[in-house]
Design goal:
Strands 6-10-11-16-15-14-13-12 form an eight-stranded mixed beta sheet. Strands 1-2-3-5-4 form a five-stranded mixed β-barrel. Strands 7-9-8 form a three-stranded antiparallel beta sheet, with no helix packed on it. It has 454 residues and is α+β, with helices and mostly antiparallel strands. Helix 3 crosses helix 7. The protein is 29% helix and 23% strand. The chain folds into two domains: 92 residues, Nucleic acid-binding proteins (OB fold (Dihydrolipoamide Acetyltransferase, E2P)); 320 residues, Bira Bifunctional Protein, Domain 2 (BirA Bifunctional Protein, domain 2). The protein contains 13 helices and 16 strands.
């Protein structure tokens, strides 16, 4: 008999012979009956399996430990309790892998701090099954939306010789012997200094001149030593680049895409969201439904600073044009003033990357950050500078070596067009969608300063 997923059982009539496999979540005994709940990954819920004390395999089954893997042949029956609409009366059971008694995920509530120490096991807990299932569904929704908008998927390299952000917080890649002094990168594997990519943006920008609308999706790496609940050294982002789109059109696209991704999760992760709503963030589902039903706010950087200055709230860092919009200011804008996502546009040029289009005032750039309540920045976006001479000056102003960007400048020499793009951080978006407080809890193997275990 072929294997049935637990998710498929609701399509079968009671009395149907079934063959299932999964991992034991709990066991309990009541009078002469043993109850086993198994989980196979096909759905959030477990399925209850029952066996009578006079069954020939009862003694074997009664010794099952939590976490053990089993195969079960049996009959589908009507559930005896409201929790389980159906259950399986066991005919035969095969124990494929008995879990040792020190299996960490026992029948008790574990702290997230503890579960971070066992990232290879935590997906088997309710919370992290729900997290990573939701993450999968979210990215499926992302790909489907971009496909529907005729945006072509391009794979950007993970290794580069250019620092697109110009911040210097990059991971260097080298095969040179660190114990040997005075070595030259010309002797290294790439014959020059190379890094893990901070962004795939500048590598896919050239592709708009072939496809008009492109995106990349993958990990990005930043070596900044920020050990907070908002930062990790390796994170995932989706980065579309769109030809013939200005800043207003870009914000429209971002808002539409963000809402489409949220709606896809609402439509396809109902069990997981119900769990988060009950145990992680009360009112989560209502929050998400409200997000997709209302237009996002839009204000300029100057307006945002003025709103913050006009409030009587005591900030740790006073908001000024020079100090910029700090995380506490982002939260105040979204959580107190707007109470919804908000775009902040036209940032000072000194706060943004060299490739962002310089506005006519020569002081600001045509850029926007999308801020979400309780999270802060989720998207960084801008029109791209198309004027070759201005772009060269911006590279120089950021103390970057123009020679390393010659290939990038070719896109402005050979048929440039108006275009815009953005990066949406999946982990920060996941925090909003699941209610999880710490970014380390929405990525399978978090990499943070001082921690790269597993």
């Amino acid at each position: 008999m072929s294997l049935h997923s637990l998710k498929s059982l609701h399509t079968l009539e009671h009395g149907t012979p079934v063959h299932v496999a999964g991992w034991v979540r709990t066991t309990r005994q009541s009078r002469s009956i043993l109850f086993i709940e198994i989980h196979d990954g096909s759905q959030f819920a477990t399925t209850q399996c029952v066996i009578d004390a006079d069954h020939s395999q009862y003694s074997v089954i009664s010794k099952l430990t939590i976490g053990s893997s089993v195969r079960i042949h049996g009959q589908l029956k009507t559930g005896l309790t409201g929790k389980h609409k159906h259950e399986i009366a066991i005919d035969t059971i095969i124990v494929e892998g008995m879990a040792d008694s020190d299996y960490p995920l026992q029948k008790k509530r574990h702290s997230f701090e503890f579960l971070r120490t066992i990232p290879h096991l935590r997906p088997r807990s309710n919370t992290f099954y729900a997290v990573f299932k939701t993450r999968s569904i979210l990215t499926q929704g992302m790909h489907k939306y971009l496909e529907s908008q005729d945006v072509t998927y391009i794979q950007a390299p993970a290794i580069t010789t250019t620092d697109a952000e110009g911040g210097g917080d990059v991971f260097r890649i080298s095969t040179l012997d660190p114990t040997q002094p005075h070595q030259d990168f010309k002797d290294d594997i790439f014959k020059q200094e190379a890094f893990l990519n901070v962004t795939g943006q500048i590598h896919i920008e050239p592709f708009i001149q072939a496809f008009q609308r492109v995106y990349t999706f993958g990990p990005s790496f930043r070596a900044e030593k920020s050990n907070t609940s908002r930062h990790v050294s390796e994170f995932w982002q989706v980065e579309p680049e769109l030809a013939y789109v200005d800043l207003v059109g870009l914000m429209d696209f971002i808002e539409s895409m963000s809402n489409a991704m949220i709606q896809y999760v609402l439509d396809h992760a109902s069990e997981e969201l119900a769990f988060f709503d009950e145990f992680i963030e009360k009112g989560l589902i209502k929050k998400l439904q409200q997000t997709v039903s209302e237009p996002y706010g839009r204000i300029s950087y100057s307006q945002a600073i003025q709103l913050l200055v006009d409030t009587d709230h005591a900030f740790t860092v006073n908001p000024t044009w020079e100090t910029g919009i700090q995380s506490e200011h982002e939260h105040y804008l979204t959580d107190v003033i707007f109470k919804k996502p908000v775009f902040v546009t036209d940032y000072p040029k000194d706060q943004k990357a060299f490739y962002m289009k310089l506005n006519d005032d020569q002081v600001t750039v045509a850029a926007t950050d999308l801020l979400f309540p309780k999270i802060g920045e989720i998207v960084g976006a801008s029109e791209r500078e198309t004027r070759l001479d201005v772009l060269q000056e911006r590279i120089k102003a950021h103390d970057l070596d123009e020679q390393l960007y010659t290939w990038y400048l070719d896109t402005r020499r050979y048929g440039t067009v108006e275009h815009s793009g953005f990066g949406l951080g999946i982990e920060r978006f996941m925090r909003y969608i699941t209610g999880m407080d710490n970014i380390r809890d929405v990525i399978p193997y978090p990499r943070t300063p001082g921690s790269a275990d597993f």
